[in-house]
Amino acid sequence: MNSLSRFVEGVQSIWGPLSSEVVAGCQQQLDELLKTPVTEPWLADLRQQALAQQEMYRDPVNGFVLLAHTEPEGLYRPPHDHGRGWVIYAVQHGEIEMGTYAKVQAPDGQVKLVKRGSTRVSAGQTQVYLPGDIHDTHCICGPALLFRFTERDLKKEDKEARKLTRYIEQDSDWVPANQCAPELLKS
């Protein structure tokens, strides 16, 4: 049995509704996955192929998904949340800076983000984001290989429930994309 199979079995054995225990257990399983020697065939292939995104596992019963991403140095993903879903990022190689944000509302009802801070997530480290947490990612040492563990299929979630929120920069502020003037969304 390889480390990827052990990861899947480990997560399946602790899976349940969102709780501190489930998140900690999944994070522990990812911590173990990050210790995989680069000589394991599945990881060697993944590093050699260096695909922008590759699905590693989709659980047919519980719905969780493990994706692998290879990101070039400098790649920036603007602030976003994962709607009702939660996610754990695990950096296998390289370094990603992840910023966190709070959503604030002005007296006129307009919403903007205020940056709380940022964390450098290096090889062998993980970072958890719970439902509604707003964050961005910036590859500062790459190419980086990271795993993104999501408790549900986020593409399906976005398509069906429209619960994910993306932000766009407007007048030096990050604002919800759906709050922007239509001409700003074309860029």
Automatic annotation (TrEMBL):
What protein name is recorded for this chain?
Cysteine dioxygenase
* Organism, scientific name: Zestomonas insulae
